[in-house]
Amino acid sequence: MHGLARAPALFAHALTPAGAVLACSVAGFGFLYATIALTAEWWALALVTGFRPERLLEPDPRRAGGADLRRLAAWAALTAAATAAAGALIL
After folding, report:
1. Does the keyword Transmembrane apply (predicted)?
2. Model-level pTM?
C-alpha cells in the first residue's frame, strides 16, 4: 500500500491478532473460531482485491464518487462462505 492509507492499514493489521485474542478471552469463546473467521477474511480480501487491499474502497471510474460496493459485497459474501465451509470441515 501507499499514500495516506498505509499507516492506518499497517496499524490495523498489527492490532488484528492481538484484538482477536483479547476479544475471545473477554467473551469466553475459543480462539479457533476467530482463527477460522480471520483466515477466511484475509484470503477473501486477497482474492477479491487481487492482493491490493486498497482496491476494496477505490471509487468506480465509471461512476462519479462513491466506492465500488460490488467488491465490498463480494468480499463479505466470500468471507461468509469460506468461514462456513472451513468451520464445517474443521469443527
Report:
1. yes
2. 0.73
